[in-house]
Amino acid sequence: MEIKLTTGSSLEIEESNYKFDARVPDGPLEKRWKNKKDQLELIAPPNRRNFRVIVVGTGLAGASAAATLGQLGYRVTVFCYQDSPRRAHSIAAQGGINAAKNYQNDNDSTWRLFYETIKGGDYRARESNVYRLAELSVNIIDQAVAQGVPFARDYAGYLDNRSFGGVRVARTFYAKGQTGQQLLLGAYQALMRQVDKGNVTIYPRHEMLDVVLIDGKARGVVVRDLVTGEIKSFAAEAVILATGGYSNVYYLSTNAKGSNATAIWRAHKKGAAFANPCFTQIHPTCIPPSGEYQSKLTLMSESLRNDGRIWVPKKKGDKRNPKEIPENERDYYLERIYPAYGNLVPRDIASRAAKRMCDAGYGVGPNGIGVYLDFSDAIKRLGKEVIEARYGNLFDMYEKITGDSPWEVPMKIYPAPHYTMGGLWVDYHLMSTIPGLFVIGEANFSDHGANRLGASALMQCLADGYFIIPNTIADYLAPMLTEKKVDTDHPEFKKSIENVKSTIDRLLSTKGKYSVDHYHRTLGKIMWDKCGMSRNAKGLSEAIEEIKGLREEYWNEVKVPGDNNELNQSLEKAMRVADFMELAELMCIDALAREESCGGHFREEFATPEGEALRNDEKFSFVSCWFWNGEVGKWAFAKEDLVFEFVKPTVRSYK
Amino acid sequence: MKISYFYSTPIGKKIVMAVTGIILFIFVLFHMLGNLIIYSGPERYNGYAEHLRKLGEPFLGENQFLWIARTVLLIALILHIHSAWAVSKTSWDARKKPYHVYSPVQLDYAARTMKIGGVIILLFVIYHLAHFTFGFSWAHPNFIKGDVYHNVVVGFSVWWVSAIYIVAQLALAMHLYHGLWSLFQTIGITANKKRDWRRNFAILFALLIAIGNISIPISVLLGIVK
Amino acid sequence: MKLKLKIWRQKNSSSPGQFVDYTVDNISPDMSFLEMLDVLNERLIEEGKDPVAFDHDCREGICGTCGMMINGVAHGPLPGTTTCQLHMRHFKDGDTIVIEPFRADTFPVIKDLIVNRNAFDRIIKAGGYISVNTGSAPEANSTRVAKSIADTAFEAAACIGCGACVAQCPNASASLFVAAKIAHLNILPHGQPERRQRTIQMINQMIEEGFGSCSNFRECEAVCPKEISVDFIAFLNKEFIKSIWK
């Protein structure tokens, strides 16, 4: 197919005839996972020691998978770039984790969790996967509680729940605003227990730089020891990637500074299909950037929108102190545009409205990027004590970062990238298009369609790691029992190490003018402006050209100080940004090719007259999959059609 | 052996330090209270000293209580010092390369000077024993065995001897100020942070013991006790 | 703002290291401390010099990666705050700021301000978990946990493992870290079966690593970004006695 750019040129995209077999079982939805498990191959406990499994990443998905595989008796090797597995970015998840326990007797069920997740994802996810996720959600809570995760409880000692955005039941389990931290520590401790038993070996401060394929199967990885710079290789019978999402392609995001796409990108370049790269989620309530030096953005729980009112001054560029702006000169734009939902419109709507206001010049704050979130009415109506109890810790956090007290002046908020629904394509077994390469957690594309619901990310990571991968990986490994084991002497490992080394050498020898961060910021700005909250053909076309140019400049002008044989944070960043530069282009191409609006992907050309997302199920009810075709810019495209047997896609309406 | 394992750990040693600290504290408290009898005159003071020797009769023979008490105190003192030395060694070893700039946030003077204060108190105890208990002539030229009142009055009438005692009592007060609070923490007794009774307890007894003890040399110097 | 920085530079674990003076200009009071270092590093890179290596990741105060001694205090002057959440408005124009790595023999310096805190992982490995195999957990609500117990367990579990307690302690003791994890797991009903062995094993590992002893200085509590109470250390001591004799 040919994609025309508004800049005049066009992209020749090869259409691959790859036939996706998602290995989804037949039968009634609620029996599918059970039936699948009954059919999966098993490996006898004493034989499991014969299988080496590599897990990359130690967030909720990686740690839970490694702990469980270790417990089952596999020989597990784990890598993480952080200094300890406990620091993976799952730790920063605040709100909670969903589970269809129906403890509140509000008529919740597996079906409802499934249905809301599919609908929330704007009908761009696979039914069978999502149903399995909803089914397993209850086991996750049992597991976490048994590990000692201190979830909030009521006065009778039972587990407490709260409600979350876009849902009509209370099914979210939480541990104050630190649910991700507590769940991760549970998984980390389970992992350390397996290390103690000798089943798992951990390599912290090691970054994966390549996956090694032998006869088309994933048989190991190449990693860089971030302390010594040594390039090492490890062989295994299967490789699991649990390396999270790629929001950092935008430079400014709520992700950790180190979060990166390198592992999945290198796997993609070795043949793994990348699915729906343009599906990114922008969270509406984040603290806006305060200057050019800004290094990351901080999310504020969206619960704030329950009592806070969002507004901007009616006059463009009004620099007055917000308290001096009289009521009739304020525009409570969400209440005005969406009278039925007001400040509680869904995330994507709220985010896009804020961007529109700021783009039109109504933004507040020193850089004009921000809108007010004002609690003064709520404080008057409910009293300071009630607000303190509900949001006290969030107010403190806001004050710590901005120096402003939300008790005195309205908060300033602005949307920020924080989650990527896209990722490596996986089948029902969570295996990518490379046999033996499994992808779990945010790194895969599987369960959230075009938009993720709040409190579902933690659920997916732990379902994948604790309950799915341990079963499906056995099915892959079982037939290999009598096969001869490969080791790192194999020429493919040597080749891979040479490739990695040559990339490093090239970056170190460029000796250009600007730092890696300079390029990362530039890339982020292009992506945010043209492939962010709302996209159009013109912007995306320009972005594709600009990224190409920037990438060229990067490889000629970047300055990476230091050597390879030492701890070199500039080099680490340089490798990650090199990959972001390529991924960014694919995101834009995918966004350009998907001529519809759905979930987090909003194409301005495809909107209702009121500005709502206009999905096109007839033409785009599929997963966009991209195969690396030898060089950047030359991807091959294939699609996995989405079949809805149990739910009927409808229009999401918020009016 | 449970007990040897217990004592081999820094936490075990800290608990031993706390428990022996309690014993030594009780001794210091009664020692101070007993010595206040000096204000009732030579007969009763010397009688108190005599009484101590006969305490426990008829179950114990003369001086037996005193020797039991001395043995317990000596063991307590040795354990207190040994545990202190051992945990200090552990801590010194834990940071051999010190900070170039270090600003404690709430560490107070008393807590910081526990080790040096302990050494000062130990040296003083040795001097004190030589001075009043054994009456070595280098320490107390006018020592009369059995006449405790005389020994005290004559001893303290030398100003610099009194000065040594007063300084030592200030050091003891500091040691108790941290020690009496800290021992509760070590043996696992906590309190409300805002109204910490342990802190009040420590202040009260540190002051009580220091004031009680210091009053004696001052009274001698001022001629109130003669 | 204009600031003078005295930063500890050390090429690797075996080199001696020394302070190097830098000046940074145009520092906005809204910058975080780490963003101020980013500005310095960007300049150093463009000047062709080696940037200052420091650990950081989430930059929102929860991952526990960042941490350095700022004017002699772990994580700097603001209580209950990690280095990444400390903002430059807490400093004055013209200030001199001394930046040193966390120091303890158990936390060897890797480079500049980066230290190795894997001793903490080894302590957790020794017993800082509840041994429940995946799949064998009973229904979550089958065990009730009093709200007060759950809340206390959470307070202890809030530890981010940054190591500021060790860094600030004059004894380089890990008591607060160990106590918080033991308290978290030992007070929950789910943690009871392994209560004694967990306590002993974690304490033994703490000793083996070479951490100092607790002198109740309470410096750890004062710098803990999560303001974890030294009451947990009192609890730890009690647990230790019980584990041996009960």
Describe what you observe in this structure.
The complex is a heterotrimer of chains A (655), B (226) and C (246). With 655 residues, chain A is an alpha+beta fold. Among the domains of chain A are: 283-416, Succinate dehydrogenase/fumarate reductase flavoprotein, catalytic domain (Flavocytochrome C3, Chain A, domain 1, Alpha-Beta Complex), CATH 3.90.700.10; 489-619, Fumarate reductase/succinate dehydrogenase flavoprotein-like, C-terminal domain (Methane Monooxygenase Hydroxylase, Chain G, domain 1), CATH 1.20.58. Chain A has 17 helices and 23 strands. Chain A has helices at residues 32-39, 45-48, 60-72, 110-120, 127-147, 179-196, 262-269, 333-337, 347-359, 376-382, 384-402, 457-477, 491-510, 516-530, 537-557, 569-593, 617-620, and strands at 2-4, 10-12, 14-15, 52-56, 75-79, 97-98, 162-163, 170-173, 200-203, 206-214, 217-225, 231-235, 238-241, 274-275, 280-286, 309-313, 330-331, 371-374, 411-420, 423-424, 437-439, 622-627, 636-641. In chain A, the strands form six sheets. Chain A has a five-stranded mixed sheet. Chain A has a five-stranded parallel sheet with strand order 9-5-4-13-21, sandwiched between helices. A five-stranded antiparallel sheet of chain A has the order 15-19-18-16-17. In chain A, β1 and β2 (10-12) form a beta hairpin. In chain A, α3 (60-72) runs parallel beside α12 (457-477). Chain A starts with a strand and ends in a 14-residue tail after the last strand. In chain A, 58% of the residues are buried. By secondary structure, chain B is mainly alpha-helical. In chain B, α2 packs across α4 and α2 packs across α8. Chain B is globular. The termini of chain B are far apart. With 246 residues, chain C is an alpha+beta fold. Chain C folds into two domains: 3-110, Ubiquitin-like (UB roll), CATH 3.10.20.30; 118-245, Orthogonal Bundle (Fumarate Reductase Iron-sulfur Protein, Chain B, domain 2). In chain C, the strands form two sheets. In chain C, strands 2-1-5-3-4 form a five-stranded mixed sheet. Chain C has a two-stranded antiparallel sheet with strand order 6-7. In chain C, α2 (118-125) packs antiparallel against α6 (195-209), α5 (175-187) packs antiparallel against α6 (195-209) and α6 crosses α8. In chain C, 60% of the residues are buried. The model of chain C has no long low-confidence stretch (mean pLDDT 97). Chains in contact: A-C, B-C. At the B-C interface, α1, α2, α4 and α8 of B face α6, α7 and α8 of C.
